[in-house]
Design a protein that fits this description.
InterPro entries: NAD(P)-bd_dom, NAD(P)-bd_dom_sf. This protein is of the alpha/beta class. It is built from twelve helices and 13 strands.
Amino acid sequence: MSRQSEKEAFWRGRRVFITGCTGFLGSWLTAALLERGAAVVGLIRLREPDSELIRTGLISRITQVSGELLDYDLLRQTLVEQQIDTVFHLAGQTIVGVANRDPAATFETNIRGTWLLLEAVRQTPTVRGVVVASSEKAYGEQTTLPYREEFPLQGRHPYEVSKSCADLIAQSFAHTFGLAIAVTRCSNLYGGGDLNWNRLIPGTIQSVLDGQQPVIRSDGSFRRDYLYVADAVRGYLMLAQHLTEPGVRGQPFNLGSGCAVSALEVVRTIVALSDTPEIEPVILNEVKNEILDEYLSPAKAEQAIGWRPQYTLAGGLKEAMDWYKAYLNA
């Protein structure tokens, strides 16, 4: 059996529980697991019709559990009755602006929701391990680049703090109770299915496909780390396959490109890939108090599980644009 076949065989028939399965990343991860033959159980709070999982009909191929992440009894019942082997915890409040407007609800979902799920896992012997989604935002503002996993987690604003806390809680359950848990800290994910038009990449692609000038709210110089969602999914699957190994159990892992790209570079790349390469962006220069540069070192993930991004920025954006073109035309 080839190495690739062994990877595919790992998931065949394996019972997987995903929180946040209808979200942007969750839809991609669910599709990848179904393709590999896993039996997926998804926790669904609201049925968002624009979710890629729902739009494609793939939701009909999973076992759907309706309810809240904050319902401990439901979590425990689901893990036990569905005989879950692997858990991916992706659910949470992910919009920074919403977190600033409603910090209490963000803390409830992102922090309390994490420890409730992990406590349910601790009480369920069938669960082999958990991958918990943190974020590069858990680092807060750092003075040294690139961000590495040994850096302190020092979120200051509500969303950052919620991810710092959830990240530490996951590590606490791993180190205190011996649970096979790994934490992912992804950089800025992009790709088809992300319909938050306020984000730089979806908003720019939508504008360019409509023949409109894309708008950059900052001065265009802020540099960020962008990761195509397919690369992130591959990282999640690889971590889950290695959860019980000493170099993975209880560890956080950066999933990022390892380099920073300015907003202006991203926009110009999208424009260059379009049918209207002469369009110039509108630069508003309205953003204040932003961190100038953020990017992650993926060296630990490469050393531990052999993961590194396979997509270039241009390659990922090309696939993303094809998806958005088909979606908007439909």
